[in-house]
Amino acid sequence: MSNSALAGWIGKTRSTRDQITAEQINKIAATFDCPAPPSDNGAYLPPGWHWAFFAEITSISGIGRDGHQALGEFLPPITLPRRMWASGDLQIGKPLTVGETVEKTSTILAVEEKSARSGKLVFVRVGHQFNGDKGGDMHEEHAIVYREAPAPGATAPAPVMPALKATISHTMKASTVQLFRYSAITFNSHRIHYDVDFCRDEEGYDGLIIHGPLTATLLMDLAQKQAPGKRLKRFTFRTVSPLTHAHEFSLHATKPDGENISLWACNHRGELAMMAEAQLD
Fold this sequence. Notes:
By secondary structure, the protein is of the alpha+beta class. The protein has five helices and ten strands; from the N terminus they run αβαβββββαααββββ.
């Protein structure tokens, strides 16, 4: 598809509605293996948990080869076979609350083609505005990257090591069951999260890919634990390399510097997988 044709998708919008329910919150807590937060009407939804709402419901006949909604519906029909979340920027004016009915309006903000050593890349940046009937107000932008299939014998990108020293670290391992559950509660049918053969044979990974939003949510939770009593107002993150269920991974954070906390996730070799910044007040 030509650049001019891709540019024609900029400005396209879509709206969905959902209610923040206690039942879904309990499913999220069970998936993260953590105590369920307060779920009475009016209780705040924890940061990052909104990704388990506003599902994109697509019939089986509308699914592409990778398990995602076929391109050309809301997202442009980019022919590159691999896609993944590249970055995100979540700004929380007022947290969403239990019992609130929320309208999510999504807009395609930009479509950019780039070249890298690994081949052609296309970035699609999407904005989301969340408006609740009880005053919930959030804005989010995330970028999706589309890439070529891995070339046989291609050299892996040079690893990036953390530049900061952590004051708190936590090591964990994602199970196939946890990844399945997260896919289920987010209605995400992308095969990289549950089909090991597809990951290995089609995408070139050594295991199931841990969802970018799952890792980002864990980092948000770590930020909140670093600053108890404060509220997350902004969280930005960038994916550096994928994490898989085949190995342990680690989460790290610095000591709060005023309102700001730097966070990152690393693979089992200590190489950067995700970088993030949190602002709290």
